[in-house]
Write a structure and sequence with these properties.
By secondary structure, the chain is an alpha+beta fold. The protein has two domains: 194 residues, no CATH class; 125 residues, Beta Barrel (Barwin-like endoglucanases). The protein is 49% helix and 16% strand. The chain has 13 helices and 15 strands. Strands 7, 8, 9, 10, 11, 12 and 13 form a seven-stranded mixed beta sheet that branches. A four-stranded antiparallel beta sheet has the order 6-14-1-15. It is elongated. The two termini are 25 Å apart. It comes from Microbacterium psychrotolerans. Keywords: Cell membrane, Membrane, Transmembrane, Transmembrane helix. Belongs to the ABC-4 integral membrane protein family. InterPro entries: ABC3_permease_C (IPR003838), MacB_PCD (IPR025857), Macrolide_Exporter_MacB (IPR050250).
Length: 436
């Protein structure tokens, strides 16, 4: 029997007992459907995290603070710490809620950072704390101020990212502030002028006018109450905020950003962080900041996938039962095929192909319906509870994952069909022909 005939025969034989085969396919469908949904959940969330990573910072930039006794690995220890006059208050890079104080970074520290092997560029982070933002004499709204790093991108509802190379004062306002500032929509805010106020140490308030060039979307990492000024506006606000402060005192920064090779491997980044630690600094990458998010998500998806695999293993017993019954019912037929010259290998292949075909049908139906249901759920959630997280597709699919799921199910089906196929291959033709 030729290979083509073997495949055709396996497909037709699979439906000799339609009810039994359909029940087996249904069992496989449950496992494949579950695996598709859980895999899509992991793909969707991780894809959203990857898409929004650049809104936190560029992948080749590391936030650096000076290590103090109050921190261990960049995280506050909570133990009593002796007062240090060089310490400044700062939000620590790392998991949400990690806040404390760090030792101020000085111009000499910036030179030290620049001399470390692997550091391409160093830039002090200027922290600006606005009093309010206002448009056209309207209500004054409390707002924070973020910072833009070269290579960083922002999810925008309208407009463009503020140009750090421009001398004009530009700002991107959060989408949540559009209505509050009196704009009809995000597009209407573009090109408008807003007033941002800061106070110096003597509590004198200074106001600066800036042009709105972009409206930033809110992401799962936050940022919904922070404006994003360009470098010129940041420098102006920082200078006004420190009016009257001696120049040497102004050059005390809570943190700095260092740039490294964007193609650096994980091992090279680890070495750079170790060198920073030896020099008395703590470096944190975007991956470090998001590590907790991705670890939790991956763990949840792994557990859910475990349930799907259990369902598939249960379905494999259905395949064994179906094919064992098929071998028993076709004993005389197997004997006749072997008497006519079909080898044991061909008989084994016939039943193995039958098992794989059943696995393919169950997985294809499960994956297909899983994608339809998953897409419908994702769309409903995006238009409802997750409407404030634009760009989030909670359940997403990619071709590689879909093909992998089908191949895994077919592999399980093949293994499950091994025992019945081996029994059929070992059948003695004479005894099989005598079988009643």
């Amino acid at each position: 029997m030729k290979t083509g005939d073997l495949i055709t025969s396996a497909v037709s034989n699979a439906f000799r007992s339609k009810t039994r085969t359909l029940l087996t396919i249904l069992a496989i469908f449950v496992g494949a459907f579950t695996l598709t949904i859980t895999s899509g959940l992991g793909t969707g969330i991780n894809r959203y995290i990857d898409d929004t990573v650049s809104s936190i910072g560029a992948e080749d930039v590391m936030a650096v603070t000076k290590t103090s006794d109050s921190t261990a690995g960049g995280i506050p220890t909570g133990d009593p710490v002796e007062y240090d006059p060089d310490a400044v208050a700062s939000a620590q890079p790392g998991p949400p809620g990690a806040a404390g104080s760090v030792i101020a970074i000085t111009p000499d520290d910036l030179k030290t950072l620049a001399s470390i092997d692997g550091v391409l560029r160093v830039e002090a982070t200027k922290t600006v704390t606005p009093d309010f933002i206002q448009h056209d004499g309207g209500t004054r709204w409390v707002i924070g101020a973020g910072s833009l790093i070269a290579g960083q991108t922002v999810e925008l509802a309208a407009g463009t990212i503020p140009d750090s190379a421009s001398d004009e004062y530009q700002v991107a306002v959060p989408l949540t502030f559009v209505d509050a500032l009196g704009f009809d929509d995000a597009d209407a805010a573009i090109g408008q002028t807003v007033t941002i106020a800061v106070s110096d140490p003597t509590r004198v308030q200074h106001e600066v006018e800036a042009t709105v060039v972009g409206v930033a979307e809110e992401t799962f990492t936050g940022g919904g109450a922070s404006a994003l000024p360009n470098q010129a506006l940041t420098d102006e606000l920082f200078g006004l905020q420190n009016s009257g402060v001696p120049a040497d005192e102004q050059e005390r920064f809570a943190s700095a950003s260092i740039w490294f090779d964007p193609h650096a491997t994980a091992e090279q980044i680890d070495v750079l962080q170790a060198d920073l630690e030896d020099a008395g600094f703590t470096g944190t990458t975007v991956a470090d900041q998001l590590g907790a998010f991705t670890a939790v998500i991956d763990a949840i998806v792994l557990v859910l996938n475990g349930f799907a695999v259990i369902a598939l293993l249960a379905a494999s017993f259905g395949i064994v039962n179906t094919l064992l019954m098929s071998v028993q019912e076709r004993t005389r037929e197997i004997g006749l095929m072997k008497a006519m010259g079909m080898g044991s290998g061909r008989v084994f292949s016939l039943f193995s192909l039958e098992a794989m075909f059943i696995g393919f049908l169950g997985s294809a139906v499960g994956v297909g319906i899983g994608m339809l249901v998953g897409s419908a759920i994702s769309t409903a959630l995006a238009d409802g509870p997750f409407a404030d997280l634009p760009g989030l597709s909670l359940i997403a699919f990619d071709a590689a994952s879909i093909v992998t799921i089908i191949l895994i199910v077919m592999g399980i089906a093949f293994v499950a069909g091994t025992l019945p196929a081996a029994r059929g291959a070992k059948a003695d033709p004479v005894d099989s022909l005598r079988y009643e």
